Amino acid sequence: MTEDDLRILREQLGRPARGVIEVASRCPSGHPNVVKTEPRLPDGTPFPTMYYLTCPRLASEIGTLEASGLMAEMSQRLTEDDELAAHYRRAHESYLAEREAIAHVPEIDGITAGGMPTRVKCLHVLVGHSLAKGPDVNPLGDEALALLGDWWDGNSCGADA
């Protein structure tokens, strides 16, 4: 991670990035769009969101999906589709194991983010997980990302200003 990455993250978030381990995904322009964070922030706060979405453009698009009622629909499908529920549980278990390998934080032991493993609470987290880990790890993050379609219009995101 470069000083330029840290500057861009500060601009994206409107504050300095906290507890960042690395850039986990970059947008098509090469700027950070997901960071991997420590499970305990520098101030001591437990932080279960290991993959944190930073791109304002992508966050806005995901917010539109969230407002559509998609999360409730996905949560309902988890109760009806055993295969989907099992895949989502595997995503949860993988997330926990990866975070535990960074550090053990008792306050968030067994807790992932985004509602995993039984519901969908935050598409931003699920999409961030999918972008960081690639396809076929988090099925609902993958679905949300696919629903975004061509969210990148080919223009600069403004982070290089």
Could you name the key traits of this structure?
161 residues; mainly alpha; globular
Distance between the termini: 19 Å
Net shape = globular
SSE string: HEEEHHHHH
Number of strands: 3
Helix content: 40-55%
Overall pLDDT, averaged?
93
Task: State the low-pLDDT regions, or none.
Answer: none
Q: How many structural units, i.e. domains? A: 1
Biggest sheet: strands side by side, in what order? 1-2-3
Radius of gyration: 16 Å
The number of helical runs is: 6
Tell me what portion of residues adopts beta-strand conformation: 5-15%
Brief summary of the model shown:
With 161 residues, this protein is mainly α. The protein has six helices and three strands, in the order αβββααααα.
How does this model look, in words?
A 3-stranded antiparallel sheet has the order 1-2-3, sandwiched between helices. The chain is 47% helix and 10% strand. Strand 1 and strand 2 form a beta hairpin. Helix 5 (123-133) packs across helix 6 (139-148). The chain has one domain (3-148). The longest helix has 21 residues, at 82-102. The chain has helices spanning 3-13, 56-67, 70-80, 82-102, 123-133, 139-148; strands at residues 20-26, 32-37, 51-53. The chain is mainly alpha-helical. The protein has 6 helices and 3 strands, in the order H-E-E-E-H-H-H-H-H.
